[in-house]
Amino acid sequence: MIRVMVIDDSALVRDVLATGLGRDPAIQVVGTAVDPFDASEKIPRLKPDVITLDVEMPRMNGLEFLRRLLPQYPVPVVKVSALTEKGKQLTLDALAIGAVDFVTKPRSDLARGMEALLAELTVKIKIAASARLLRFTPHTSTRTAPAPASPPPVRPASSRLVILVASTGGTEAVREVTSHFPEDTPAVLVVQHMPAGFTRLFAQRLAGECAMDATEAKDGDVLTGGRILVAPGGMQTRVRRNPGGGFRLAVTSEGTLGGHAPAADATLASAAEAGARDMVAVVMTGMGADGAEGLKMIRNGGGRCLAQDEATSVVFGMPAEAYKRGGAERLVPLGDIADAVLSLLPGKK
Fold first, then answer.
1. H and E: helices and strands count for the chain
2. 228 forms bridges with which residues in the sheet?
3. Annotated active-site positions, please?
4. pLDDT tens for residues 139-149?
5. Burial class, 60, CB count within 10 angstroms (exposed 0-12 / middle 13-18 / buried 19+)
6. SS (H, E, C) 67-87
7. What phi and psi values does residue 153 have, to the nearest 5 degrees?
8. What is the pLDDT of the chain when averaged over all its residues?
9. Domains of the chain listed by start with CATH number
10. Which of 14, 46, 137, 228 has the most other CB atoms within 10 Å of its CB?
11. How many Å apart are CA 47 and CA 231, to the nearest integer?
C-alpha cells in the first residue's frame, strides 16, 4: 500500500481527492491537511509515502513548505496545479525545488475533469512512490528570459543536432545539462513530457539560465547553432531535412502517440530518417519506454546515443529501456552528460 497525504486548503478538493484516490486498492489515504502548518504536525506521525500538494494556500506558500519539508522529510511530492499562468509558473518553481511531478486541475466540466485528474494523479502517485529524490539543496532561480531589445542574430542552419528527451524529473535534468552547454553548441532539441502551455514557460526558464538561446518550437523552425528548441506540449514534433541545409521541424496537432504529446519516439524516429550520423541523442529520466525505439534507430543509422544512469535518474524507466533495447551506447551520470555530448560533436557548427 502507498500511504498518501492530501494537502489542500479547499475542503471540497480534499474530500474529492481523498475519496477518489482511496478507490485504488494500492493507495491508502492516511490523512489530509488544510495547510502546511497542519501538514507539518501530521507528517511525522502519519509517515506518508507520497504527498499531493496545492501550492497556492494561505498562511504559508506551498513553495516555502517544499523548501522546508524536503530537507527534513524526503517525501515525494506531486503538485496539484491550476491551469492559470500563475499556476504554471508555480508548478515550474515546485519542480525546481524538488516536487517529482504535477497534475492540473480542470477549468470546466468539473465532474468529468476531476475523474480525469484522479486517474492521472493515481498513476503519478505510483510513479512518485518509487522515485529517487536525489538532492535537497534546491535550484531556486525563477528568472525568465528578458524580452529581446532587438531581433535575435541570424544564424545559419546547424549541420549537427543534439536531442534530449525526458519525462518525470526531466525539467531539472534538462536544465542541468543545457546550463553547461556553451553558446556555440550546435542546435539542441528538447522533448520533455509536459502539457500545452508549460513547455513555453519551461523554454523561457532555460533561456534565462543557459548560454544558448531557448524558445518553444513551432512548425517550420530551422535548427540553428546556439539555440535550444523545446517541443511544444500537446503537439508532435518531427525532424526533417531542410532544403537549405541542416534540419527543420514539422510540428503537428495529431494527438498523443503512445500516450504522449510530445512523444520522444516520434521525434527520434524522424530524426534518424533525416540524418542520424549528424546527431547525438540522450534519453533521460522518466517512466515508461518512450524514446527507446527511436534512440535505437538513431544508433543504427550511425548517430551517437547515450542514456542517463540509474543513480542520478529520478525514475530509471526510459533510460533503462533505451539501454536494454540497445539504443544507448552507455549510461552516463547526469553531471557528466553535457561533457559527454560535447565530446561526441567534433567540429560543431
1. 11, 14
2. 188, 214
3. 167, 193, 290
4. 444 344 444 54
5. middle
6. HHHHHHCCCCEEEEECCCHHH
7. -60, 145
8. 91
9. 2-129 (3.40.50.2300), 161-343 (3.40.50.180)
10. 228
11. 38
